[in-house]
Amino acid sequence: MLSYHLALEQVRQTVSPLASERVALTDALGRTLAADLLAPHPMPPFDQSLMDGYAARSRDTRTATAAQPVRLPLGSTLTAGETLQQPVPPRQAIRIMTGAPMPPGVDAVVRLEDAVIEDNILVIGQPLRRGQFIQRRGAEVKPLAVVCKVGERLTPQRIGMALALGLAEAEVVRPPRVAFVAPGDELLPPGASLQAGKKWCSNLYALDARARELGYESRNLGIVPDTAEALTAALQQGLAGDAVVILGASGQGVHDYAGRAMADVGASLMFRGVAIVPGRSTAVARHRQTLIFGLPGSPWAAFITFEMLVRPALDALLGQPAKLPLPAVLASDVSMRRGATHFVPVRLQPSQPDPEAVPLRDLLAVARAEAGALGMLMTPSNRRHLPPGSRVRILPL
Known about the structure:
The protein is α/β, with parallel strands linked by helices and 397 residues long. It is built from seven helices and 28 strands. The strands form eight sheets. A six-stranded mixed β-sheet has the order 7-4-6-5-9-8, with no helix packed on it. A six-stranded mixed β-sheet has the order 16-13-17-21-20-18, with helices on both faces. Helix 1 (4-13) crosses helix 6 (299-317). It is elongated.
């Protein structure tokens, strides 16, 4: 039986990054960059005032004291979006607003709340420091600086930064297309009346939502009858995409038809069985460029195996490197079976020097945890017990 690391390596090695396309930044939320975004202009593009106030020459105020202040007549008013082409004459000041470009001839700003105005004259009682309350051109971003790197997802903050630099488009990877299907005569669709011996299907819809949250194109093929023919027909539909996930057909019982359906559509089995808990009976096959995953049917096991096997494969299609684990300290003990890698969802709590990992024992605990604080503990396969305080490695989710 394959170890988890060998299984994951096999899966990632079979995929190549997808083709890229150019899209408007305003439509690129969640997309993955296929090329670096470079700043075409500095930010800010000019020296600008950081305050509402008055702009003057610092050298005109060298002799200013409280007893003998310098008096500078006020000229024009400059607001954001306006420019003043002519230099401000010596020994004169202007009114200036936050974000307005500094005109030639002045190099300091007096804050509005600090200014003394008498008969349209700025009264300065101490020397002004050159550059005070001025943001220099390129102070935030230099020209040709890398704004976002290949493989990074475009968040609202990154999109906003790129737009502020005058960019309008980005080269992004085509999103992976993944389909989900759940075979099972015992499964009920959402909202159906409870029936004896049946249960509501949740993993099909939860993983469909998770895929969309991660920026993939997801297709829900629905619940299908527990027959080889029905599963094969659904699988055939999913082969138009990059991956198909079969939920609840990874076992080897009389009604587990994943292997037969994979063979019927002409897929080649890569492996069946991985030394992991949960998900020991997980199967992976390939049909041309499409990966087919047979995952466990329980919501708990489906969630974990999707995160640890399917998601890394789809991220590889996006050209993203394998995620690196982070150090943490275990809050409570974890027991496991020797010879298998156990996956345990954890909630990460801030602590020093490393965060504390609190094991989550069921889906309700996972549902209540904040998404940004979720991680996955991968236990060493040669251990049977990890006591509280153990230093562990956590993959952030």
